[in-house]
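Here's what a typical entry looks like (SDR family oxidoreductase):
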Amino acid sequence: MSKTLIIGASGQIGKITTQLLLNDQHQVVALVRDKNKLSDLNSPYLSVTEQDLEGDFSQAFASCEQVIFVAGSGGNTGDDKTLLIDLWAAVKAVNYAKQYDIKNFIMVSSIGADDPDATESDLKPYLVAKHMADEHLINSGLNYTIVRPGSLNNDSASLQITTQRPSERKDAKVSRENVANALLQVVKTAPGDNRIFELFDAN
């Protein structure tokens, strides 16, 4: 069975995704900075590796066939961490994936990453980082899926999603559980054509 590396497995979407893959009996390598954050996950399909994304984390890719990059600097950090995690760590992950001949790279990006100049808000540095990370993946030669969720919330999974951007900005939202379930489906789908899609809760 193929093995999936989840980078950022202790984050909100990352942990839900990890649990869903384990429930579906997928072999998972969970890359985290602090393994204690996954102490409540017990599965024979799980191995946890403690790595710092600001350093060299290439060894985590060994024996994996698929990667999900769902790491993020978080909303309470400054632009320096956005640069180091959302951009630079993502770029390094793509480079490591090429080094280890990863078959499919799944990048969790953001709505607005296609055109950061269209956004005039405090989120712009974050969107620029996501845009550049996405572009690096697109130009890498790897097989890829880029998922760009709308505004995230903690609603329970409705399992009702759409890739069509709602006409009203207030409706351009999606629950983290729905994103995680979408990532599970991407993992279960054999790699085909490269894909980029936005993701929203279906009303």
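The longest helix spans residues 79-99.

More examples are in the samples folder.
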